[in-house]
Write a structure and sequence with these properties.
The protein is an alpha+beta fold. It has a domain of 240 residues: Alpha-D-Glucose-1,6-Bisphosphate, Chain A, domain 4. 38% of the residues lie in helices and 25% in strands. It has eleven helices and ten strands. The strands form two sheets. The chain has an eight-stranded antiparallel sheet, with helices on both faces. Strands 4-5 form a two-stranded antiparallel sheet. The radius of gyration is 21 Å and the shape is globular.
Length: 345
């Protein structure tokens, strides 16, 4: 993570920052009460470091999680707003090729920047996988009906413009269904003879983390991820993105929800469709107001939950290594966010 040392002046200002955060023990104790962080090194946080913990092993074979903690040099309210709307695509090191907002209801024009005419190898890989789809088989996370429609639309022609139009139709259908029905509108993937529900995968992972689920119950109930509500009662920020996931071009559809809870904020960034490599993910944020150097700042806890098919075949040191790589990528993303907060105050 890009360090915030340049943001803070040395000497007295640093001492005041340390005293301010230490005195503001409420957020730190709150974070420790539900997370895997038994100790929180305030010195490292103020230096711009990111504290991290590899999540505990799950009984759910497809699931993996990680937790991070960091400080942002803008107010909690502003930090929550930026987290909800954040566009990672300007940061080349994150390998995000496109990131775009979806209107409500979304429309074909929202996907006009979906472009497969590129020299980027991961995107070319995805193009080849799309063109190779048949009514009986696809390497993408689709229903049988979607696979048939995509194969019929593409018809083995690798024309990038044609492929973009075909994929837009697929994404538009999924996005509209989610906007109308929430997770109940997220169709299952029919892959390798199985029906994989993103909603079930997310709920299973969260139910294994009961303390975290209880902490985030206010927002999880309102978005229909836990509890009895089906259609979300919060209006999220909807987006689609095209990025490199382990050298494979990947498209996802997501929604970011935000809720004010007393004096702090909770957010959930949920991917309800992912074209491949993994099934779904949810990133939870809790943001508390603190004083940093006499100015408003924010203490942020972040929890990442991923469900991927290859995880079912990993055990022991292999799964630990996978978690370490996952944390490496998460920290890189947080560094970029921190850096923006530092420069765009």
């Amino acid at each position: 993570m890009r360090r915030l040392a340049a943001f803070y002046t040395v000497g007295l200002c640093y001492a005041l920052s340390l005293a301010a955060l230490a005195a503001d023990s409420g957020p730190v104790e709150s974070l420790k009460s539900f997370s895997d962080f038994q100790e929180v090194d305030v010195n490292r946080l103020l230096n711009g470091d990111v504290l991290s913990e590899r999540g505990s092993l799950m009984d759910f074979p497809n699931g993996i999680s990680a937790q991070t903690c960091f400080v942002v040099p803008v107010s909690a309210e502003e930090t929550a707003k930026r987290l909800q709307l954040w566009d990672p695509s300007p940061h080349g090191e994150l390998k995000v090729f496109a990131f775009h907002t979806l209107h409500v209801p979304c429309e074909p024009a929202d996907f006009q920047q979906l472009d497969f005419k590129t020299s980027q190898r991961p995107v070319r890989w995805l193009l080849d996988k799309i063109v190779a789809s048949t009514p009986a088989k696809s390497d993408l996370n689709l229903t049988h009906a979607e696979a048939r429609e995509l194969a019929s639309c593409v018809q083995k022609r690798a024309d990038p413009q044609k492929v973009s139009a075909c994929v837009t139709t697929l994404l538009l259908g999924r996005a509209l269904a989610f906007q109308r029905q929430g997770l109940d509108g997220a169709q299952s993937y029919e892959t390798a003879g199985e029906s994989i529900s993103p909603a079930v995968q997310l709920r299973t992972m969260l139910r294994e983390q009961l303390v975290i689920a209880h902490e985030f119950l206010p927002i999880l109930k309102k978005i229909g991820l836990l509890g009895n509500e089906t259609v979300p009662s919060l209006t999220p920020f909807y987006y689609w993105t095209l990025f490199d996931a382990d050298y494979h071009g990947t498209i996802s559809l997501g929604a970011v929800y935000q809720l004010a809870v007393d004096d702090h904020f909770q957010l959930v960034d949920m991917e309800y469709y992912v074209s491949g490599n993994y099934y779904t993910s949810a990133t939870l944020f809790e943001v508390w107001p603190i004083q940093v150097g006499g100015k408003p700042g924010a203490l942020v806890w972040r929890g990442d939950f991923f469900a991927a098919p290859m995880l079912a075949f990993t055990k022991g040191t292999e799964r630990i290594a996978y978690g370490a790589l996952m944390l490496q990528d998460i920290k890189k993303e947080i560094r970029c966010f921190q850096d923006e907060a530092k420069t765009k105050r």
